[in-house]
Structures
1.
Amino acid sequence: MTTTTERTNSASNGASTGTEPSGQAYRAVREQLAPVFAAIADSAAEREAEHIIDRDAVRRLAAAGFTSLRVPVEYGGAGLSFAEQAQLIVELAAADSNLVQALRAHLINQESVLGHPDPVFRDRWLRRLGDGAVVGNAVTEINNAVGEGTTTLVQDAEGTWRLNGTKFYSTGTLYADWIIVAAVDAHGEEIAATVSVNAPGVTLLDDWDGFGQQLTASGTTVFENTPVEAEEVYTGGLDDGTRVATGQASWQFLHLAALTGIAEAIVRDVSEYVRGRRRSFSHGTAELPRDDAQVLQVVGELSSAAFAARAAFDSVASALGGILGREAAGEDLPEEDTNALYIRVYQAQQVIAKNVLAAATHLFEVGGASALSQSKRLDRHWRNARVLANHNPLIYRSRLIGDWEVNATPPARSYRIGSVPNAQ
């Protein structure tokens, strides 16, 4: 078993790109988070094997400041820049990508709050986030028509808002204090709300059956006549493409962060495996795998794949952070700037997802049957990366890039999914 110190040093070295932030606030919060990241990394394989939804891990992250990295200091947060937070998100993903995915809605909500035009709303939520509140989501349904929803949020005879419906893929809800819910009102128009996980009529189920990202708490959420406070009701949809903070560029960015962290975890875990391996093959090129030129070649290729992922990710982090800052300041963003950002995000998705998926398969070339041991759980890297890559299929995003290059068609910024009635 690798020690906590070794894990911490490996994760730190793997995440270093020469551009790591060096501000005092960043250094302080990273020092607080380092032992939490190390403990999470040490237990990641075991938690996957035992299917442990570790709520305490998220509570430790919150206590160490991870869930309020961007919240201003006066509200109890760390007040970090977007770029500084991005580095720490990848570091958490290298420890356990499940937790980055589980906190995806929370991180999006944090950015949305920072740039929200209503000062009363912004103040209320910054105080909650600064106090350590964690946000999950309940947005997606199944068997609904494309662009339509069956979950309703309407007022009863006494004027109380009531939420009824069932949501699937409710990522992060079992770790959360609040849930962001998408619904329709009495007229069938999009509406949204935030609901406490402890509100009457809320049922959370850990029934996500994907073969990867198993610990993201992406199960079913049921609302049965759940009361919603009026101040927690938001007219309009959650994502109409008008705000970058809540648009696909931001949502995809967090998938890219998780995938980049997986790439760095692959290099860390494979290097550790090769260093400690004693068994070799008579037809190998050295007595020990750590001296075998072909094994070292594979590790070098994995490291290079992680470098490519990180370079693409850093490019997106820089571009997205700049746009979000301008948006939060109230600037009207030129269409060409927003289009350029979305194209960059979608291009990075092609580079990062393909490199990480290939690396997660190629890693097994460094060893024999022992690399397949369930105790090592090296397969989790491929399974987790495959699920992340499937959330927004690469084929559709590459088509958007091609349409932009050939026809200057602006890339889509939001989308809706659902079932086609009576389709064969």
Note: Residues 174 and 304 are 36 Å apart (CA to CA).
2.
Amino acid sequence: MPLQTARSLARWFVRPLSEPERSFWRVVTSCFLAAVTLWVLNALNKNYTTRVSYPLQWQYNDAQFIPVRPLTESVSVQVTGRGWKLLRIALGLDIRPAEVIVRRPGGAGAVPGTALRSGLIGAMDGLQLNAVLTDTIYFEFDRLVTRRLPLRLSPDATGEALPFDARFVPADITFKGPANTVNALPSPYPVHLPQAPAGSTDGSIRVPVGGPALVQTDVQEVQVKLQPRQVHTRTIIVEPQLHHFPGDSTVKLWPAQVPVEVQFFPEDSAKLNTSQVQVFADYRQLREDDSTVQLSLRPLPVVIRGARIGVTTVRVLSGAKYKSVPSR
């Protein structure tokens, strides 16, 4: 009899597992979810000490200054608080950022982590700040300026002038951005055609206008009317200038002079000043394997519609080596 009773009890426990009964599994699932929910709620009511990333909010005069590199969005801190608060920070829900006030934003600067304590404590609701783990946050601002520039047709990617005279609508556009970048923009500002149009075209096309990073324009595209023009070509000899080279007077370039092909419209020939065509060699682009450096053109005057250097690279030689090279 006891053996029979034991078999009946075992069968009663095993039967729901061997025979599919929806009500049984529904009850098991509900009990499991209730147990997990109670466990999570109980865990979130306890205090924990952990490391979190807390958001920052920068306060500065954004009408006169602009950050020239991304501002730090958060700092790493060690805090103690209930699980509910920590979960809210992890999910980014209803968090009051800590303010970082920059009273004199001009130029580069840094804020030590210890200087952020007061702002973090004031922003943290229900959390205890133990330590600021981020040592220093850096920033760099520049004055926000606007500059209106006339437009001109940019040369081809090869440096050759496009045989067109261009009329732009609007004739000039406004650039807004960091002072160092905006003030360095060439005037007139070059507008690049998406592709060279047919030589017989006299119609209008719309061309997008782009600018450097952090610089905004008041229009996104301009209307360009192209008219075919004759272009004259002249070859001049220019001596490259040293740029960023060490203060060694014996450093020379070979060849010492390079040909530059300039292109201009016929009516501008009287205004052409070849001394304004400057070529420079940048030491930062020196190739150590063959001691060569690439040449570049400085911004060209308005009357020059295109320019191309006949020798793209030159060798960097010491004074002794330079004397041993036969002259051309």
Note: The two ends are 121 Å apart (CA to CA).
3.
Amino acid sequence: MNNSNANLSTIKILTYMMFMMFAMTTDAVGVIIPEIIKEFNLSMTAAGAFHYGPMAAIAISGIGLGFLADKFGRKVTIIAGLVLFAAACGLFALGHSFGFFLFLLVISGLAIGIFKTGALALIGDISDSTASHTKTMNLAEGFFGIGAIIGPFIVTYLLTSGVSWKYLYVFAGGVCIVLCLIAAKVNYPKTVIESSEPINLSRTFALLKDPFALGFSVVIMLYVAAEAAIYVWMPLLLSEYTGSFAWAATWSLTLFFTLRAVGRFLAVWLLSKMSWEVAMLLFSGAICFCYVLSMTLGLEIAVFLLPLSGLFMSMIYPTLNSKGISCFHKSEHGAIAGVILFFTAAAASFGPLLMGVFSDIMGGHAKYGFYMATVFAGLLFVAMIYNWLKKPATQRLAQQNISQYGNQ
């Protein structure tokens, strides 16, 4: 293997590890929330701040700072974000109050918005076609899925060992320091600037006028809102289940994350067998089916179908995210990644918040929030039917294939 190929492999591994590392913290909140409800005597809405607080910070950072990856380069942006994230995670060891922990989560959210937009833009730099971009994105999100399994496992292990859940963040901070050292030694590919237009926040907001940026962002919001219901509120929903399959309720979140991770690796193969439009149609329909049956037939069915939805959710987000970013020139990938990340994190923040508020209003039962999530899943399915019938992004993606990669 020559130096160029070795460097490219290192960049890919670094990118995959970054996705895995921050997933350990963001997707462990479903296990942490029941603990902080007891520890600090909180309502569902207040405890949910552990999720929607950092998600709101990611949203603000994504749209407000996403252009940094285009202006200062992928390497500087990624290292800056990783350093800030490591510092926030390390400080968890010193905290004892809910307010202090929430403050650190907000800081970590800002950091994630910085280094994730850099990583998303980097995927475009190392791809040789829009199809290659989608496959690499699914692989990266596959490692995110692995992190989403590791995080809850670490929290569960800590709690059963009598150790505070906060040391999950200390562990993640340590991993982050290692990634910083690796990132500092890697040579990154240069990004070709397409125009002389200033790279700043105004340029990012200008992208909001593009119908492809808005279209993909809105569809991704629907998906994320439906998905977030699983890892934020499903443990609480199924905690009241006492039927014959109580073991399934205990392992439901682990099963969901496992199926989601496996599905993202399988997506690389699946996308070579069918068009992405057909795949999105089939999988969004299956998600809607799982939600509707779970809500109409009760917990005896939900205990199996809600975790199973992870398999169908697996390739939705990375594929839509990739296609949305691929509709733009590489020199804009940081900014457009930030725009899509804003809508992603906003949905991940306010979706569970609305579900928690609605559930509290209706008496504190999590099932009412899942009724709302079912509506989001239904709207996503309708959007994917339109995408399959009209194929609105086909021409734009073909143009980018020709102009940037020389592919017909």
Note: The first helix runs from residue 3 to 26.
4.
Amino acid sequence: MPSDPHPTHAPALTPTLPHKWLRISGLLLVGLFVAYLDRSNLSVGIKNISTDLGFSGEKFAGTSSLALTAFLVGYLIANFLGGFLTARIDAKWILLATVAGYSLCTVLIGFADSVGVLVALRVGVGIFEGIYWPQQFRMAKAWFDDREMSRASAMIQYYGQYLALALGFFVLTPVEASFGWRPMFWVLGAIGLVVILPLYARFLPTAPGTTTVSTAGQKSGGRLTFAAFGGWRFVLLVFSYFTNGMLFWGITLFIPLIVPTFGFATSINGLLAAAPYLVSLVLTVPMMLLADRTGRRGPIAVSGLVVGGVLLAGVAFTTNPVLQFALICLGLGYFTAAYTPNIWAIAVTDLPAHAVGPATGIINGFGAGGGGIVAGALVGALLAATGTYALGLSVLGLVAIIGGLALLLYTRMRPAAH
């Protein structure tokens, strides 16, 4: 079978850890699952929150966009700073502190009595989760070799994220409808404090589960230079993730609001909001088998942005609600299944160990945080101007296609060996 034109090799020294797939990938999967519920819960409750906090009606489009993207403001800043400021601190203790922080903020949102308090606490959730994010890949870089990185990345980042989104909207929508938005936030925050925090404290490894492990041809604790990140190639990688962030968050922030506009039965809106992520989980199996069999992570990731972008761009060209919904499901489903599991494996294997935390913070901060903020503002503005989400989704699709071309250029510029 053909091999990756840019092969990777296993580090010379990879520390051993009993049950590492369960203790690292499994635990971080569960932790990210809960973290993503904390990110997406506001989308589920925003309609009732707007009534209680006084921004329903004409104020809804602008204020809901502000509230939904407030998380991403803190997330952007914290990803940038967190990766650098925590580079010399044991990843386990940063994970513990940040889980406690964003879980407490989530509990407090349930007591919010004004838009200002809501926005401030959502920024707080974003800050703690932004510092949390790079620590996952510091763990992965230290404990898994390059041949294991696709599976480790998929378990840690992809499955935690998309299981939460697939199950979250499906489960949280009826919970919020039955008990209200405040109890929803209280319960989710409590899960982080009384379940995830003790599990991390007991089972996650401390050093050498950080980026201090030496790898072939490099020393730990190297200088954090532009060249260490990959130079201008790194800019292309960050830009591709920015377009990913726009497409992903432009849909995820608004999907519980988009689905009711199609006129389907109200009783199935929660399931329909989860449908794009269920499609993603189904498509991931063949995409991961294809990636493992061919070793061609780059082209598969490129196809995720390009094919997904083309499908989403088609939303504005039809008024049929069934076809529009199908394009959203297939577009987001294919894009995430092809792009997300592979992009982090590409990034982590390309980066030297000492740069993993800062670099993944930059990628995710600018990409998910910055891209999500731009997408939220863009979709909100086009909704206010046109009264429909269709044009905003199509614009996001076109941006994703450009991101796919940037990633293609990045893969052509990668060195033949590390």
Note: Residues 1-12, 209-220 have pLDDT under 50 and may be disordered.
